[in-house]
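PROTOCOL LOG
Step 1. Enter all chains and additional molecules of the complex.
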Amino acid sequence: MTTSYADRLHAATLAKKTPALVGLDPRFDWLPSDVVGNARERLDDPVAIAAAAFEEFCIRIIDVVAPLVPAVKPQAAFFEEYGPDGCLALCRVIRYARQSGLMVICDAKRGDIGTTAEAYARAYLAGEDPQAAIWGADALTVSPYLGRDTLEPFLNVAAERGAGIYVLVRTSNPQAGSFQDPIADGMTTYQRVAAAVEEMSAASVGTSGYGPMGAVVGATYPKELNELRAAMPHVPLLIPGYGSQGGTAADVAGAFDANGLGAVVNNSRGINFSWRSGKHAEEFGAAKWEQAVEASTRAMIADLAASTTAGVLA
Amino acid sequence: MTTSYADRLHAATLAKKTPALVGLDPRFDWLPSDVVGNARERLDDPVAIAAAAFEEFCIRIIDVVAPLVPAVKPQAAFFEEYGPDGCLALCRVIRYARQSGLMVICDAKRGDIGTTAEAYARAYLAGEDPQAAIWGADALTVSPYLGRDTLEPFLNVAAERGAGIYVLVRTSNPQAGSFQDPIADGMTTYQRVAAAVEEMSAASVGTSGYGPMGAVVGATYPKELNELRAAMPHVPLLIPGYGSQGGTAADVAGAFDANGLGAVVNNSRGINFSWRSGKHAEEFGAAKWEQAVEASTRAMIADLAASTTAGVLA
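Step 2. Run joint prediction.
Step 3. Record the structure below.
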């Protein structure tokens, strides 16, 4: 019997006592010199060096955060920039994260029609058994523009494997509203997507009360976040935009239910590169970058606990 | 001096005298037995076998269609389903297509915010120089849901490198309208996206009269196709949905300008697997599958020439 994604995520959140999600956004120009040095020592090709350095950087972050948080969110784009070598690094990072007891949300924002969507779903959505899909992820981010029928293949594979998908509903960028905000028949586009997501997710809720279809809602739009939490009571939320993009713990407070569940809040740059600028950079610097990663992760966990119902998890 | 994507595509279309685009959609269960046999002879791992078979299948299609059409459109999802091995096969297929004188539209429907979008753009959009990006494509399909600011990084890289992007405007699937059709302030969502795409593309038109930002508009919605052609006079169109999805040459006639330019029409399954069913299957069958690929490509070219202004190219 497969345990649903939402139930597994809740168990992991309760176990780690926090809904903090650590993004894995490696950027070559910003990597610690020891990581790049290690790759350069054994490789010559610049692409192979970047891919190997990404892998080591992410694995060392995973080693730091695995005892602290329920999940990580690798951003596929940064790996894909380094071609097949980068893709292999992403695959290995996902596998390593799962072996370390973390859940993995692959942030690849895929979307296509019919059997093509099915191919993406089969590729990324391993769900409960990390071996069930080659990319081994627990969940995948998905774009809704193509229409409701294009979300169904993702949902079907997710439900079958105990995997999750997070549909883009309200994104965190400044012009998120250009196509998400216009009001037709009394509803914005994002409200219309939210209604579809709620309906599709509610049809197969687990014991947690949440279904396999989640939603991405940016921390940078707290008013919409509150509204969407109410509109999608059976939908697990993935909240980007905390930290570097300007979202605060107070901004994301509306994402959680009374038990501090129902949402995960992501921080990528603010943790991955906390040793490059800000107070943890001053305290630790590049030489102790893993300590900065740990301190910034702990700071985020404390911040969420202090200003949201996630505090009840502790 | 870089030649723009639209100018290069027009030159290729004039040279091949057709706007037919051949999709590359390999599916393992449907591959010719000789292709699978070749991979099985030298490999043991099922994933490696699939990736190698995809590569050979696509390369042999490219060998057949390179003299006939201006461009091919590999579908990333089918390759990604086989993980890093599949990604490597995609990379090699793109490279081989360009070495064979074809332009390549990578159909990956990417989209993300800010520097993440930039990473995708740098990864896929090689433009005029196939070496300028690791995936080596001339153009990439892109999803607009996240907003106008998320299209700009793609446009900037495209303009710089002589590459193109095709933004999803009106997709070919049955429920394309679920989020694309609602009318706000007198405009559907797809019309709103189209207006943004026209404005962004018109700002940098080449000598062809078209800009670097194209649009995906499905052949399965001929009324919307005619309307969108008129609304986006500076936007090159990519038309999926011809053939297996039901679109006819008459349905796509509205996509072209008076010179038979301004659009490419894609056919994937109807060419890749024309030897599995239909009249070319009867004539050639699996043993002569490449001849079926050639015959179905020629039939599509003739069909477009007979029923659209693409006839003036011949």
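Step 4. Note key features.
Chain B has a mean pLDDT of 97.
Chain B touches chain A through 59 residues (CB under 8 Å).
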